[in-house]
Amino acid sequence: MTAELVRGQNHPLPRTRLEIRVSAGIPVVAGATLGDAKGTVRGTEWVAHPGSPTLPGLEVSRQAAADHRLAVDLEALPQDVHRVSVLLALPLGTAGPSRFAAVAAPFVAVTGLDGTEVVSYTITGLDAESAVVALELYLRNGAWKVRAIGQGYAGGLADMLADQGLPQARQLAETILDAVALGASRSVAAPPPRTSDEARVRAGAAGTAGTDGGQADTAPPQTAAQRPLTGAGPIDYAHPRRQTSAPPPAPTAPAAAPGEPSRPVAGDATGWSMDERLYNQVWGMFEDLARTTAAYRSAVDFADSRMEQELDRVLADPRSRIGSTGDHAREEAAARREELVGRAQEAFDRDVAQLTAESEVVEPALPPAYASWDNPVWHGYRTPMEIPMALRVGDLRLPERPELRIPMLVRLPLERGLWIDSGRSDAESADFMDAEQVKGLAVETAVALAARLLAVYPAGEFAVSVIDPAGAAAGALAPLTGSGVLAAPPAAGARGVAAVLSGLTERVDLLQMAARGGAGADALPPGMDTAEQLLIVNDFPHGFDDRAVNQLRYLADEGPSVGVHLLMVADREDASAYGPVLQPLWRSLLRLTPVPDDHLADPWVGHTWTYEPPLVPPGSAILGTVLAQVAEARRAWPH
Question: Which neighbouring-strand residues pair with 33?
């Protein structure tokens, strides 16, 4: 039976191999420190955190997440360790809350490897604190125990680490937050907020119903620990949990035969318009695939762990270690594992088959802003009259079912810039490409994204500028330059770089002053273009001096709030000469790749998704056709 602790209570630990599961509702940083007999952390090498997630006997998450699973093997800890403190902290410097009083009370549970909950603790009573010691595992008279701590620190990670005796506390706190912030550039955006009133599902409660992903004060998606190992029902295409408002009813799925799942219908999620319903449906598909894959992975992990424990028991007894008794025990353990994995595989295949059927219905129904370039909807393209909710910037898939691709949608207007990484990639798709080919694909990806942005905005409401200091991307930029959709020819040389950056920096300053003063568009200088702006920067840092670098950082930080967006095509190693001064720039951008690569992290369930860029199919003329219509609409638009 689970012991529910309150602050200060302790409880014996019946085993030494454990998992510590955290559910916080929003992304938080999870780490752990090792202490000696006096509780002192002797050095940074005794701290496990996202920048250094593995220590002997201890492993923590590599990024901020709404749910965490920390692995602890008490017997594998260094001999001098007498205490393990579990730390939680808010990722300061992001758009999230800066104190725990603004979020739901974090829930922490200590479980066995099979998911059996030993103790649980809900951390209540926090206010201005941004970091908290949640639990500690400690050695007393040769036996390990767990104590609920709940000690918060308004000074954040630095004060918390200093309180544990770490001399380099402030420097390590900065390192941890930098690692978390850099991981944000590789993170899939959080799902749209939900209005569900369902209670938060505790980690480790096998057999509970799934919950939806969301932001603060909403339940996170069901994790592997929260999904039943077997017996989970099929995906319901009525999508009761994909509802985000109370608009007019959406299309409903046709009635299915008794015992069969409902047939999918495009736009069956809730929304005020078909675009919103499709947007919510795509996110529902993303969450469903994440949850069913998490359930499958959890079931396989459990089956492996159970077989390992059974074999350990067999090998521990010399009488059954050899001979027919041992062979029979091994065969039985392997058979039980195969049975569990087979049942999980059956449920997973069923869910994926339904999602595949849904994808086949939804994909052809997507509007241009959500559709891939090979979708026939582009052949009937017309200049839109209003800005759509979101834009497709590629596809996402998981290794268990690479054939099932979910559109990756980002909300409009863009809340952060984009970075097309033109550096070396470890992806298999780049094995037979040289550096120049990858750079060429990076520019093609940037052109495809810029064309999509131009196409989904009404005429005159979006403009694109290009900085190409050495003219190295002239060929790849031809669709933009040849169609006449650019605000001006690509800027070249140091002088051209300075002119474009100075103009956009001044624009951001003027718009921010107008916004702060509550002034309207008539207060802006005469003739100033009020359209949103996208700046494509190729071959960075070539042609950039220190002043230009600072202006670029300013545009990345301040531009999105006033409609000035950045799209970088750059190899981070090429800019390494600038050192840490560029760290904030990379952290502020969403990193995408020009080749399929498994680099996008999903902090809500811990998956790593493979991203595929939205390139135009080889031989297709659709990009030129769409850009020609955009250019014609721009010429006809009254200035």
Answer: 47, 85
Q: DSSP 3-state assignment of 335?
A: helix
- Note the residue count of the chain: 639
Tokens matching residue 78? 């260094």
Pick from 25, 50, 24: which is nearest to 177 by CA? 50
End-to-end CA distance of the chain: 72
Determine the residue type at 504.
L
Tokens (6 digits) for 318: 């010399």
- At residue 438, what is the residue type? V
Q: Would you say 25 and 103 are in contact if contact means Cβ atoms under 8 Å apart?
A: yes
Tokens of 233: 């029902």
Distance CA 75, CA 313 (A): 17
- Let me know: does 111 contact 19? Beta carbons within 8 Å: yes
Query: For the chain, how are helix, strand and coil distributed in percent, rounded to 5?
Result: 35, 20, 40
Question: Would you say residue 471 has pLDDT above 70?
Answer: yes
In terms of DSSP bridges, do strands 462-467 and 417-421 run parallel, antiparallel, or are they unpaired? unpaired
Paired sense of beta strands 143-153 and 10-12, if any: antiparallel
Using alpha carbons only, what angle is made at residue 148 by residues 145 and 149, rounded to the nearest 5 degrees?
120
Residue 408 or 326, more confident: 408
The whole-number pLDDT of residue 51 equals 85
Burial of 600 (0-12, 13-18, 19+ CB in 10 A): buried
Does the N-terminal peptide bond of residue 584 adopt cis geometry, omega within 30 degrees of 0? Answer: no
State the pTM of this model.
Answer: 0.73
Which of 122, 89, 108 has the alpha carbon at shortest distance from 203? 108
Which candidate, 147, 122, 124, 112, places its Cα nearest to that of 35? 147
43-84 pLDDT tens trace? 999 999 988 889 999 999 888 888 888 999 999 999 899 999
Q: Whole-angstrom Cα distance, residue 217 to residue 195?
A: 10
Query: Torsion over CA of 615, 619, 622 and 628, rounded to 10 degrees?
Result: 110
Mean pLDDT of 156-175: 91
Query: What are the distances in angstroms from CA 362 to CA 246, 401, 539, 616?
Result: 22, 18, 38, 20
CA 451, CA 634: separation in Å to the nearest integer? 14
Question: What are 350's two structure tokens?
Answer: 């069923």
Region of 8 on the Ramachandran plot (φ > 0 left; ψ -120 to 50 alpha; else beta):
left
Question: How far does Cα 321 stand from its chain's mean position?
Answer: 46
Tell me the C-alpha distance between 168 and 146, whole Å.
27
Residues 6+ apart with CB under 8 A from 476: 440, 443, 444, 447
Query: Facing residues of 17 across strands?
Result: 73
Q: Minimal CA–CA distance to 6: which of 150, 111, 142?
A: 150
Rounded Cα distance, 360 and 406, in Å: 11
Residue 460 neighbours by CB under 8 Å, 6+ apart = 531, 634, 637, 639
**Mean per-residue pLDDT for 502-516?**
88
Nearest to 86 by CA among 29, 158, 40, 171: 29
Q: What is the DSSP letter of 510?
A: H
Q: Which helix (H) or strand (E) holds 534?
A: strand 532-540
